[in-house]
Amino acid sequence: MSATKTGTMGVRVDGGDLKVALGAQCPAGVTYTVMFDRDNLKTGSQSKTEVFTSSVPLTVFDPFHLPPGTAVLTPFPAGFQWQDAQGVDIQVKYADGTEGYHPATDLGRIGESAQHPPATYFFVAGWYTIDQALAKPNWVTACSPK
Predict the structure, then answer these.
(1) What's the pTM value of the predicted model, to 2 decimals?
(2) Which of 59, 65, 97, 129 could make an S-S bridge to 25, C-beta 3.0–4.6 Å?
């Protein structure tokens, strides 16, 4: 049975692009599942999911403009616009079967991105740099050291 860690992630909008901060750098070889509106019982809509792998380490990424060294295994549905979603979750899976999970982040809060310094992201409890988020007691990220 594989172990699962629950952590936090940050999000912001830069120039209309969604940026996801994983916190600690995830190593190469991780499989990522990005889910928008996962199990949205309020609207009855199904989640919009993309699965990709990366042969390069990632700390911050845009799921719609992935960097070189990544390969999409399952793309988002055609025509999907993240701006229509209410929340985003991230799951990571290591080659050894260990998994990490970032619970839903409310996308309604990231409309404030322009009011915050460019190096900050909305984490579960406010706007922080990655280093500030990693320094929070009891906060872990999916790719925090094991």
Answers:
(1) 0.83
(2) 59
